[in-house]
Specification:
Elements lengths: L5 E3 L2 E3 L4 H9 L46 E5 H7 L4 H5 L6 E2 L10 E3 L2 E2 L4 E5 L2 E2 L16 E8 L3 H4 L6 E7 L7 E9 L3 E12 L3 E12 L8 E15 L2 E13 L28 E16 L4 E25 L4 E27 L2 E18 L6 E5 L15 E21 L3 E18 L6 E19 L2 E12 L17 E13 L5 E19 L2 E22 L5 E16 L1 E4 L2 E4 L11 E11 L2 E10 L2 E2 L7 E2 L2 E11 L4 E8 L7 E5 L2 E4 L4 E9 L1
Parallel strand pairs: 7-10
Antiparallel strand pairs: 1-2, 3-9, 4-5, 5-6, 7-8, 9-10, 11-12, 11-39, 12-13, 13-14, 14-15, 15-16, 16-17, 17-18, 18-19, 18-20, 19-21, 21-22, 22-23, 23-24, 24-25, 25-26, 26-27, 27-28, 28-31, 29-30, 31-32, 32-35, 33-34, 35-36, 36-39, 37-38
Length: 704
């Protein structure tokens, strides 16, 4: 069992030493994936853009631009995150087309719905192109948006680029890069409910061949409900060594510590939210949620000649997580009580070591990529199953009490997983007006599970093939039409924590057809995109209609929809950004067990999937002042596959006013949830996860 303190370059990182880590990181070797220009953030933007002319390694490793790509990719950049007040990655990414937040304390907070498919086994998370493996359905990294240049989303199956678990979408957070031009930035914020934030960043040259980038961020929030306090901090560092223009080495070292709000939802009255309970929390006084992450990475890039480039990336990721909470609440209005159960104590110890070797070849009209990536993941699950314990507290102003359980907390199982992926892509320019993008990939995972208590050890091999074929036609230099067919695969449960009940299941399969249009408008008016798609997914785990006790692979679902996105500047000083998604998602075949009976869910909508999602931001600038107003709408969703529990649609308004005092300094007043609306973003254990109430923050941003 690994100690919770982490040693990097001979120095122990503890929460109390986070500030000292900033100085250490400047001298820590570090590695990057792509050479990107630093983003200079100010209170205004020069143009309305969807970044269609920007190469996207999130969507393809061939280096083609978003306009050339026969698929949908959304981008939220650092300037947008700053002017909207999106301090967390999960906040920023829900501004992208069709992405809705379904995070909770139980899944680490980074869980999303996209194109009808939900959760960590269908919507992948990556940082600088490296997938973070999911253990027991949990993703908590990356957390805060500070230090990131942009966040990109590849919509639909992404298995050709990222492997299994990406049929709905893949979200990729791309960090800011080192520069030999010295610059520094700082952000400080205070707000309602005891919000305090501080971020610093610096880049510059070190000697003749080296440059660095360091970003540090910390937050402390009292919270608006009982037990609502949260704290967190991180240090991100990168050292770049570039002895000549053809060879580069990047070295990266990061450390992140989070103590999120200890909140597991609010009980409801037969689906009705009780607004008077929004500030109540029914967890234990000594409850705990703690995430600790360490990242080390080394990447070398060699431009052998004009035609051939080779890169190799070696990395180590470590996550230690701990939960000790009461997680199940039932409302008893007649007795004026809340009945509590599920006294959980769970710990995760995850270590992932991997390597990716890649060659890029340019031959005439071809831009081809060939790669191999492999990873070794060790995962230990410690818990106090069967999670007994119960208590009852008053509905209002409960006495939270202390956490206790009759069940011992013990290591229950270890898994060792080896994954390998072999992939190839080719972007073939067919004359001036056509581009053909083809890709294929083979993934293989060998999983061994050591049951430390039950003794039912087993091994399993999962494998899957995926491919995509897309064609882009350029009507003009600024307008393109495309069509694409793509396949992918998802695990039926988190792969590295595969249990005996799911050991005999293969990967579920997805396939997508998509057509779309992308256009840059004349005279700097802006850009817009449109996409139509259908995704079918088979081999979903269901129940045998003739034997409800037997789980089998035979379920299927589909989703189809239309997505529109635009960024426009129709008049001087006005800028608009928006997107809208209309979606139909249904189970074609699914049977669930209700008691001893098998019940069909065919025709029902999967849980956490809205039919409509939309975002709109308007910005108006007069001299040094910019005012912004944003609207976010998420349609009705269901909290179970039976569609018997509904989460109502909601529309939330956010706003900001920014004053650019000088070229170096901007003051910004942020307002979230202006109407103080009470609404649920998702459910946990049949409880509603209620969103934050109205909040104000005053932010100072300084560049040097």
């Amino acid at each position: 069992m690994q100690h919770v303190n982490q040693r990097i370059n001979g120095v122990f990182f503890k929460p109390s030493r986070l500030a000292a880590a900033i100085a250490l990181a400047i001298h820590t070797p570090v590695f990057a994936e792509t050479m990107l220009a630093s983003v200079e953030v100010s209170a205004s933007r020069d143009a309305a853009t969807l970044h269609l002319d920007q190469p996207s390694k999130t969507a393809s490793r061939t280096g083609i631009t978003a306009r050339e790509l026969p698929a949908t990719v959304s981008t939220v950049d650092a300037a947008q995150m700053q002017e909207r007040g999106d301090f967390q990655i999960r906040e920023a990414i829900t501004r992208a087309t069709g992405i809705t937040d379904i995070g909770s304390g139980g899944n680490g907070g980074l869980s999303f719905s996209s194109r009808g498919y939900t959760g960590t086994n269908s919507v992948g998370i990556a940082e600088d192109g490296i997938r973070i493996q999911t253990g027991a359905g949990t993703q908590n990294y990356p957390g805060s948006s500070w230090g990131y240049d942009r966040v990109e989303v590849l919509h639909g199956p992404a298995s050709v680029v990222y492997g299994s678990g990406t049929v709905g979408a893949t979200i990729n957070a791309i960090r800011k890069e080192p520069s030999r031009v010295s610059s520094q930035e700082m952000m400080a914020a205070v707000g309602t409910d005891g919000v305090k934030r501080l971020g610093v960043g610096a880049t510059g040259a070190l000697g003749e061949i080296a440059s660095y980038r360091v970003d540090a961020y910390g937050t402390d929030i009292d919270g608006y409900r009982a037990l609502g306090d949260s704290q967190g901090g991180k240090i991100m560092s990168r050292l770049r060594l570039q002895p000549n223009s053809d060879f580069r080495i990047d070295l990266t070292a990061d450390y992140n510590l989070q103590r999120p709000e200890r909140y597991w939802g609010t009980p409801h009255d037969n689906g009705r939210i009780l607004p008077e309970l929004r500030r109540e929390n029914y967890n234990a006084e000594d409850s705990t949620i703690r995430y600790e992450d360490t990242r080390l990475r080394a990447r070398a890039e060699w431009q052998v000649n004009e035609r051939l480039a080779i890169s190799n990336e070696l990395y180590y990721l470590e996550s230690n997580r701990r939960w000790m909470n009461i997680e199940n609440y039932k409302l008893n209005i007649a007795a004026n009580r809340v009945d509590r159960s599920d006294y959980l104590h769970i710990q995760h110890e995850l270590a992932q070591t991997g390597n990716r070797l890649e060659a890029t070849l340019k031959l005439g009209a071809h831009r081809a990529v060939f790669g191999w990536e492999a990873a070794r993941v060790s995962f230990r699950h410690i818990n106090n199953s069967p999670y007994r314990g119960s208590s009852s507290v008053s509905i209002r102003n409960p006495a939270h009490g202390q956490w206790s359980s009759p069940d011992p907390t013990l290591p229950k199982f270890d898994t060792a997983t080896t994954t390998q992926g072999f992939y190839a892509e080719d972007a073939w320019q067919l004359g001036e007006r056509w581009l053909l993008l083809a890709g294929l990939r083979h993934d293989r995972a060998n999983i061994y599970r050591d049951e430390l208590v039950a003794g039912t050890d087993f091994g399993r091999t999962l494998q899957g093939n995926s491919w995509r074929l897309g064609l882009t036609h350029f009507l003009t230099r600024d307008t393109s039409l495309y069509a694409q067919y793509a396949t992918g695969h998802d695990p039926v449960t988190s792969m590295i924590s595969l249990n005996l009940a799911n050991a005999d299941f293969k990967l579920s399969k997805g396939k997508q057809v998509e057509v779309g249009l992308k256009q840059k408008l004349d005279n700097g008016l802006g850009e817009w995109t449109a996409a139509l798609y259908r995704i079918d997914k088979d081999d979903i785990v269901t129940r045998d209609p003739n034997n409800a006790a037997l789980a089998v692979q035979g379920g299927s679902q589909f989703s189809q929809g239309v997505e529109l996105a635009g960024a426009l500047m129709p008049w001087k000083n006005w800028r608009f950004e928006g997107n809208i998604t209309r979606l139909q998602a249904e189970f074609s075949e699914l049977t669930e067990r209700v008691g001893a009976v098998a019940v069909s869910r065919a025709g029902n909508v999967p849980l956490n999937v809205p039919e409509l999602a939309a975002n709109l931001w308007s910005h108006y600038r007069i001299g040094a002042v910019q005012t912004s107003l944003g609207l976010r709408h998420v349609g009705k969703r269901f909290s179970n596959n039976a569609n018997s529990l509904t989460m109502d649609a909601y529309t939330v308004a956010d706003a900001s006013v920014a004053w650019q005092m000088s070229h170096q300094t901007t003051l910004r007043l942020l307002a979230r949830n202006l109407a103080d609306k009470v609404y649920a973003t998702s459910t946990y254990n049949n409880q509603f996860i209620l969103a934050e109430p109205r909040r104000f923050e005053l932010v100072a941003e300084v560049k040097f």
